[in-house]
Design goal:
- The protein is α+β, with helices and mostly antiparallel strands.
- The chain has a four-stranded mixed sheet.
- The radius of gyration is 13 Å and the shape is globular.
């Protein structure tokens, strides 16, 4: 996994603050593989539905980028209890829970 311990901690903390204490965060995509280089950070967050999804996404990025260097983040948000689709299935299958 190509994230530092500090980055993992920052991601988990920002997700809790934005999406709730029960949020589960997975890293998926190229950053899962130690032998690859570069790439954005692909994150999957599974949580109870937020009241305002776009506000929660903005809060997540705000909290995260106060702790780590801003970079390209792709965030897939899954509402707990729904059937996974598209990238959600990939994240559940290949992702690493942080």
């Amino acid at each position: 996994m190509r994230l530092t311990e500090h980055e993992v901690t920052a991601i988990k903390q920002a997700a809790r603050e934005a999406f709730g204490d029960d949020a589960v965060v997975r890293l998926f995509g190229s950053r899962v593989h130690d032998d690859l280089r570069g790439g954005d950070i692909d994150l999957h967050v599974e949580a109870s539905p937020p009241t305002d999804e776009w506000q929660a996404r903005g809060l997540f990025e705000d909290r995260l980028f106060r702790q780590i260097e801003p970079r390209k983040i792709d965030l897939v948000l899954s509402r707990r209890g729904t059937i996974p689709r598209g990238f959600e299935r990939i994240a559940y299958r290949d992702g690493i829970v942080l």
